[in-house]
Amino acid sequence: MKIEKIDHICFAVKDLEETKRVYREDFGLVPSCEYTAESEMIRVSRYYIGEVAVEFMESTAPEGEVAKFIEKRGEGVFLISYKVDHLDRAMKELEAKNVDLIDKKPRELFGTRYAFVHHPNKLNGVLTELLEGEFDINK
Questions:
Q1: pLDDT at residue number 109
Q2: Which of 65, 58, 56, 73 is nearest to 22 (CA)?
Q3: How far apart are CA 90 and CA 51, in angstroms?
Q4: 3-state secondary structure of 128
Q5: pLDDT digits over 43-74, tens only?
Q6: Which spans in the chain are helix H?
Q7: What's the CA gap between 119 and 73, in Å, rounded?
């Protein structure tokens, strides 16, 4: 598996509008894009800092993973996403190393394929995502 770069880092927040206001007023940042992913039960504002995206995510449902995370741990770093050269090969390699994957087959959103690694204790409590492709909300 070849990890090409950090694609994005996600932060779970209770109030996306308030977070956007703070980042706009204090740092002069404006989201590059915003979207809702119904399948993941999240509303997201994405900012690019150089090549790496920073996403702030608010749950759209109390049973969503972001809502559960905030309930258990509070707001903060939710996940790190690594772009890989070939997602299927990366998943097979991790399975061969007995690394548990949340996903047995890739998910897809806006033309980007991704899968989550289930290794919270070994990865310091940070959810890890592997993805392949370029993020484009127009797809």
A1: 86
A2: 56
A3: 22
A4: strand
A5: 999 999 999 999 999 999 999 999 999 999 99
A6: 16-27, 65-73, 87-96
A7: 17
Architecture per CATH, 3-132? Roll (3.10)
Give DSSP secondary structure letters for 36-70.
Answer: EEGGGTEEEEEEEETTEEEEEEEESSTTSHHHHHH
In the sheet where 42-49 sits, what is the strand order? 33-37, 42-49, 52-59, 3-12, 76-84, 127-132, 112-117, 107-109
pLDDT value of residue 134: 79
Q: Both ends of the chain: CA-CA distance in Å? A: 26
Among 52-66, 98-112, 124-138, the minimum mean pLDDT is found in: 124-138
Summary mean pLDDT of the chain: 92
Residue in 132, 112, 135, 120 with CA at minimum distance from that of residue 55: 135
Domain ranges of the chain: 3-132
| Encoded amino acid at 61, one letter | A
